[in-house]
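Request:
You are asked to prepare a plain-text protein record giving the amino acid sequence and the backbone structure tokens, at your earliest convenience.
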Amino acid sequence: MKDTGIEARISALGYTLPAAAAPIAGFVPFTVQDGLAFISGQLPLAADGLRHIGKLGADISVEEGQKAAALCALNLVAQLRSACDGDLALVRRCLRLGVFINAAPDFTQHPEVANGASDLIVGIFGEGGRHARAAVGVGSLPRGVCVEVEGLFLLS
């Protein structure tokens, strides 16, 4: 694995890049085509299992939702590292994030929750981390988690 300094930035932000998780259903964790890496939705999975179970606006605060979104983004970068055969220096920029928020019907702070993922991606990749984004409220997410994040990246 080539040392690009990106993992040092991740560490400086207070995180450790985990191993990429295996998918739990009949899909692949990423596809790469014509210099684009499409990363499947990632959940807030930590070494000890899923975290941040519940709905925003009911039993999950915006601050906890931001932490969940950041953890999802960290797992997204772990998958991206696998998509790049371990060389994150191949990442030119993040093009788009899709952030799905398990929300109570009257919850309206989707962008604030999604900022947890966006801020981490920009913190890791700098200007190359600035991206288009969708922050969407949904009625439920896999295993009851409060956030799921997918991404599209441009590779060298």
